[in-house]
Amino acid sequence: MARDGPGTEKQSNMASINLIDSFQEFKDAENIDRPTLMKVLEDVFKTLLRKKYVTDENFDVIVNDQTGDLEIFRRREIVDDDMVEDENLQIPYSDAIKIEPDYSVGEEVYEEVDVRNFGRRAILAAKQTLAARINDLKKNNLLKKYADRVGDIISGEVYQIWKKEILLLDDEGNELIMPKSEQIPTDFFKKGETVRAVVKKVEMRNNSPIIILSRTHPSFLEKLLEIEVPEIMDGLIVIKKIVREPGERAKVAVESYDDRIDPVGACVGMKGSRIHGIVRELRNENIDIINYTTNLQLLLQRSLTPARINKMELNNENMSADVYLDPDQVSLAIGKKGVNIKLAQELTGYSIDVYRDVKDDVDYDIDLDEFADEIEPWVIDEFKRIGCDTALSVLELSADELVRRTDLEEETVRDVRRVLEAEFNEQ
């Protein structure tokens, strides 16, 4: 019969040490509660016992909750030497008294089991099982941690920058992902930079938790406001709704539960002190704070800030509104690239159509920009420089007054007036 060579015991000892190393890693794993640690360790070693001894019923796996030290004991009943039927469950009397002379038949013997007795392969298999269980626990722990923090602002350090997303690390070294679609268009990050974002969602990919961050989601602005405005954190002011066009404009409807508090003023702060920091964080995104009201017409009017509305016609069945404004207010209502009116519609839930308010009396007016095909842009800009941005504002001044106040030639001024007067005559 072949005997194990001297290297066998050394290999077994190494395997045992490796297992203990894994056990130590498991024992020191962060944010994993101790009862869970103890239970998994017990399960792994009981699996080893079942493979070697068929059953683990007469084994006690003891894990010290304070030190993490592990001991395995086997319990066997003492029987007469010729009555042994199962060596795993019974021990001959002659062997028992070698352990303790005072033992007698019928008593139980407790013996400590050396981990190395399981064999090298079994120990390595247990090591792999233990590492897998540790990994699964860490994944589940990370999943739970961030699932509970969805909607919260966190800070992460930029670790890697790719074309479609960036990789960040939190304080514990966990990986966080911010896709390009969740970044403000003017965001520019450098490796090592600390970035604030909101936890948008947590999902599983290939059995691994992926934490998705966002700087474009409305909840990011909501949390920034909570940080800057104590009245929101205290519940005195409530954010009713936030709509955003990231990097361009945002509208925030707020309401106060305390008549003594002006919700808009509290959010903006003294000389804009509270809102300025948020605007900088959002890459100079314009933020309109408006007072929420259940009066739909008033809410629509406020939602089109900074434009001033003359009148409005509502169709509640179709959830639409026709809004009439002075000519110089139309572009303000629509906003750059239509952003202002788009956000107003999202905020109110109503479809909004903007119309120039045409009046029958002399109050009817036309924005000078409407004449760009007939009047040189630089000439229009010169009129605007002196405060004349509509047709009537130009015609209200005499040609001599316009020549005196602008750097334009008299002939140019008279040509412009003729164009404007012709338009009014047609009307």
CATH class call of one domain: Alpha Beta
Number of helices: 15
Average pLDDT metric = 84
Named at the architecture level, the CATH assignment of one domain is 2-Layer Sandwich
Helix fraction, binned, reads: 40-55%
Q: Look up the CATH topology of one domain.
A: N Utilization Substance Protein A, Chain:P, domain 4
Shape: rod-shaped
- Indicate the structural class: alpha+beta
Strand content: 15-25%
H-E string: HHEEEHEHEEEEEHHEEHHEHEEHHEHHHH
Gyration radius (Cα, Å) is 39 Å
Biggest beta sheet summary: 5 strands, antiparallel
In total, how many beta strands?
Answer: 15
Arrangement of strands in the largest sheet: 7-6-5-8-9
Report how far apart the termini are.
117 Å
Low confidence ranges: 1-18
Function: Participates in both transcription termination and antitermination.
Pfam families: KH_NusA_1st, KH_NusA_2nd, NusA_N, S1
Family: Belongs to the NusA family.
Subcellular location: Cytoplasm
Give a quick summary of the entry.
It comes from Nemorincola caseinilytica. With 427 residues, the protein is an alpha+beta fold. Helices cover 40% and strands 24% of the residues.
Q: What is the strand and helix layout of this fold?
A:
Layout: H1 6-27, H2 34-53, E1 59-63, E2 70-79, E3 90-92, H3 93-99, E4 108-112, H4 120-147, E5 153-161, E6 165-169, E7 175-179, E8 194-205, E9 208-214, H5 218-228, H6 230-233, E10 237-245, E11 249-256, H7 263-268, H8 273-281, E12 286-291, H9 296-303, E13 309-315, E14 320-325, H10 327-334, H11 339-348, E15 351-356, H12 377-385, H13 391-395, H14 399-405, H15 410-426
Helix pairs in contact: 1-4, 2-4, 5-8, 9-11, 14-15
